[in-house]
Amino acid sequence: MFLTLPLAAQPNPNLLQTVDAHYNHLKSLRCRYVESYAGMGITRFEYGTLTLKKPGLMRWSYDKPTGKVFILDGKFAWFYTPGDAQVQRIPAKQMDDLRTPLRLLLGHTELKKELDQVAITPEGQNFRITGVPKGMATRIKQLTLHVTHDGRINEMKLEELDGSTTDFKFTDITENIPTDDSDFKFTPPPGVTIVNGTPPI
């Protein structure tokens, strides 16, 4: 009796280009996500729906905490949690928030140019791509993308220099879905003031 064991994925020298080609041909994407953070004595789990649209539009709508949003409208990034008296607004060009590496995947990008110290490792039937996002070496120790053989990302993990980690797992992914630019606009609720600030930790 012979047992047939599943073969591990073989290294694909064109995997970076496969990922680039897949996402650069998309116009929009929507998925569910679970975001976990561990660091500085804190463990936090949040989840919701992520919507992306070219060029560079992004909306994270949280189910937990209810109503929390992070929006990139092409010009500004907005951070707001219901009940807060203020909303943070940051010019998109100044963003180094942990979620922005994913936004690059809905633009015209090449991972080889966006990441330093790139490495590809087989992981079962899939692959793990690691590297350091350019311009973020003073904060990020390593970015890890878990991808399928056809270049689809289902997990993104960021390890910071202070030892903290943030992990995003993506499920129920649908591509090229109808979206409206109004989905990526934020209007502060009455009485909420706009504060120009820096990305939250």
Word description of this protein:
By secondary structure, the chain is mainly β. Helix content is 9%, strand content 47%. It has three helices and twelve strands. It has a twelve-stranded mixed β-sheet. Strand 7 and strand 8 (126-133) form a beta hairpin. The chain is globular, with a radius of gyration of 18 Å. It starts with 14 loop residues before the first helix and ends in a 5-residue tail after the last strand. Residues 1-9 have low confidence and may be disordered.
| CA(first)-CA(last) distance | 56 Å
Helix fraction bin? under 10%
Whole-angstrom Rg: 18 Å
Order of neighbouring strands in the sheet with most strands: 7-8-9-10-11-1-2-3-4-5-6-12
Biggest sheet architecture: 12 strands, mixed
Approximate shape:
globular
| Strand residues, percent | over 45%
Question: What is the strand tally?
Answer: 12
* Low-pLDDT regions: 1-9
User: How many helical elements?
Assistant: 3
Topology as H/E string?
A: HEEEEEEHHEEEEEE
Give the overall pLDDT as a whole number: 86
Helix/strand structural class: mainly beta
